Request: fold
Amino acid sequence: MPRLTGPAGRLLALAALLLLPGSLRAADYAPWVVYYRGSEPARSFFDYRLAVFDADRHPPLAPLLDRDIWLLGYISMGEVESWRSDFAAVKQAGIVLDENQYWPGSYFVDIRNPAWQTRILDEIAPRIRAQGFHGFFLDTLDNPPHLERLDPVKYKGMTAAAARLVQALRQRFPGMKIMLNRAFEIHDAVAGDVDFILGEAIRSNWSAEREAYILTPDAEYETYLAKLRAAQRQNPKLTIMTLDYWSPDDPAGIRKIYAAQRAAGFLPYVATRALDRIIREP
Reply:
């Protein structure tokens, strides 16, 4: 291959730098998607390299297992939804706390409770693996630190228990991929135990007050970037993904979010907050 000079050569050099190691991971896992319904046919996901599905309602997995697609099953680690089949049992075990005011029908759980830890490790995670998923998507782990901040006495130890449960999941399932959503307070403890960290809603989000999608203030966004980069310094093998929310009717806005997150070195996906439809990159 002839050696390129000038602008073309500089672009090629930049591309080579990006391959170490970021885009090697990007080649493995991008494009990617999050989808929490079961109505889309499996073929809708053939072009993706990684998909996060709800473990209880999702498209057929069998057609995807023969393709080069990583499949992660959703686990709500810090909450339980009232519509889940095991909600009554969780409530009876005394694990359920207050309802999340921002997500009606979803309840905080006492992550310190051994019964909850057993349910995650011995029931929920094995059930996901048995379906054929390649890993776990760990959500709602912002909740334990949030509750401990609200009442440090009543909820003492929630943050540490959250970190221990992630570590226990890694020890129990060493061959499964683990993606951690946000949970910035436990990054120091678990960065080496997960394969991905997701920065959800760090560049844009839905504002219930304004009833519109809005951009995160630049100073707040920079704070998120610093936290995610700190985790990646702690574990250079980490892949950082981002999930932002924006209106599909504004493709120019979606493109700007993709550009910002890629410029930060992350693997982005932009969707609606309900995550009940596939939003293709414009």
About this structure: Residues 114-131 form the longest helix (18 residues).
